[in-house]
Amino acid sequence: MRVQKLLYGPPVDWPVSIRVLGDDPDRLREIGHEVREVIAAHAATRDPHLEWDERVPRLLLAIDHHRLQLIGLTPDEVARQLQFQLDGITITELRDGIRLVPAVGRGAAQDIADLQSLEVVNREGLRVPLTQLGELETVYEEPVIKRIDRQLFVAVNADIEGAQPNDVTQEVWAALDEVRERLPSGYQLQIGGSVEQSTKAQASIQALQPLMVVLMLIFIMLQMRSFAGTFIVVATAPLGLIGAVAALLLFNQPFGFVSTLGLIGLAGILMRNTLILTQQVADNVREKMAMRDAVVEAAVQRARPVVITAVAAMLAFVPLTLDSFWGPLAYVLIGGVAVGTLITLLFVPALYALWYRIAARAD
Q: 159 near 172, Cβ under 8 Å?
């Protein structure tokens, strides 16, 4: 029995998954067991196994076609009669309100208790025992046949404990170097699981990221109306990484898809704070203040509203820290806003001083 947390978003059945692709199912099993041994050797993996491995038994009626012709039946007719007696055949459909319910006809249960006693009817209406048509043989077949890009594959899956899926997958992939070198022609290994789904999620963000950056720069330029102001605003966007990384490490949170979304939102929050400061500097300059005084007064005047809004935003995200899905995003925003806001209040005046070469006041 396997117990796991409720999955959000695109389901990842197994956090660590390595696919073995090839043409021969038996060869795939051999390579899959080698991959399983490597995965099992990792300290953080649990229950490594092949997605499909053992064959299942199946009863096969080996028909004597010459005898079948003498009886006056075809293989299709025999198959239809056996289907009717064993599983049933849909005869018609009945209307039940707004639904159509199939009416299935099937042989009596006592008639199929023993397969050897089954009978079929030929075209003359004579009953023929199934044993006269051929022999019942037990054969083994693949229970599951899976393909990706029209190529047969078997996945080697595992759970993890006390580690992150991406880290474990990368370490397992590095340990599989020897196995990959010994692969015969036409066979290959692929990474699946959390790494594959995370890559797809990141690609969905990156598809619109260039447009997002262009629109962001356009709106900042319209607000600042200067290249220097735009540069100062954009330069503060990465400052949130300091607090975000510290919060994720401190509370042992994964850096995944929702964390990336949090970083994007965090960059916007910090640039908004910078816009408030830079706009105040521009207002002070228009009031005929010296550049040094304009920068210092803007930092003093806007420090309280910037800090208060930052604290309000941090408190608003506290309930999300208890959520199993949005928790990493909340920690990114709380840590990034806290540290990024404090650094911004110091970084923006310092950047102004550096850009405009403002000299320190002589005491």
A: no
Residue 104, C-beta contacts closer than 8 angstroms, at least 6 positions apart? 88, 89, 90, 91
User: For residues 170 and 191, is the Cβ–Cβ distance under 8 A?
Assistant: no
* pLDDT, tens digit (0-9, with 9 covering 90-100), for 51-70: 888 888 888 888 888 888 88
Residue 217, both tokens:
């720069």
Q: What is the dihedral of CA 63, 64, 67, 73, to 10 degrees?
A: 30
pTM of the predicted model, to two decimals?
A: 0.64
Say which CATH architecture domain 60-136 belongs to. Answer: 2-Layer Sandwich (3.30)
Helix (H) or strand (E) holding 237: none
CATH number of the domain at 226-355, please? 1.20.1640.10
pLDDT of 195-220, one tens digit each? 888 788 778 778 888 888 888 889 88
Hey, what are 175's tokens?
Answer: 């340990």
Compute the average pLDDT of residues 351-358.
81
CA distance 74 to 309: 82
Bridge partners (DSSP) listed for residue 152: 147
Measured CA to CA, the distance from residue 128 to residue 122 in angstroms comes to: 7
Choosing among 3.90.1150.10, 3.30.70.1320, 3.40.50.2300, 3.40.50.1970, the CATH entry for 16-55+144-193 is: 3.30.70.1320
